[in-house]
Amino acid sequence: MKPAVDVAILSYTKNDKFFTMTQHCLESLHESEPDFDFRVHLVETNPRLKEDGYDYGQLVERVVQPSVPFNYNLYLNQVLPAFDTEYCVVLNNDVLCHQGWFGTIVRSMEEHNLDSASPKCPRWAAHRPFTSGVHLGHVSGVHFCGWCLVFRLHALKSVLPLDEAFSFWYQDNDLAQLLKCTDKRHALVATSLMTHLESQSHELYDPVQLQIQTNGMRQVFAEKWGLYH
After folding, report:
1. Tens of pLDDT along 175-216?
2. Distance from CA of residue 37 to its chain's centroid?
3. Which residue segment(s) compose the domain that 198 sits in?
4. Bridge partners of 11?
5. What is the CATH number of the domain that holds 210?
6. Which residues, given as ranges, of the chain have pLDDT below 50?
7. Which of 48, 53, 159, 227 is most buried, by the most CB atoms less than 10 A from its CB?
8. 203, burial (CB in 10 Å: exposed 0-12, middle 13-18, buried 19+)
């Protein structure tokens, strides 16, 4: 029997473009690691997903459609508490998984006693200096990549529930700070590869909403931690 891995993905299937993007993400996830059983819990913002003709079929274990407006951490809190696999993943829908990425990251986590880890994105400027190896740290956007986080179950449970004051940006900064403050070991695994398409969700919001969801969250983070990132 293949090892099961719980995966949380947030999606807003607003139109054909975003349906295709999420579908490609899901396909790449399953095709990248045929020896693992990825149980995808898709948290969907569009309340009319099926009425609009969109169906992810067997690519997902289940679809959760919250009855409240989008809030990144609130949506994740709908599914993460029920996760029970040894390793768990929080994944963006704007990524493409490279072959063998998950097995590589799990082996590195076991060898280096890591509580959580992120893969390298070959397109991301901050990752270009890391050509190999495991790089410990909690710097968001460098070691800690919100678009893909792999947790040991105990580490994930230790940060739940996620702080719902963070509705979009800076939720990864907050999570990195939580792990750091509780002495959880996190690292970037440079030999585990995943392509992040970057900022695909920005066009889903009008300029006022986008300002609140992005730069507005910076102030929330600063007030909570006394830090500016």
Report:
1. 999 999 999 999 999 999 999 996 655 555 555 565 555 667
2. 18
3. 4-225
4. 44
5. 3.90.550.10
6. none
7. 159
8. exposed
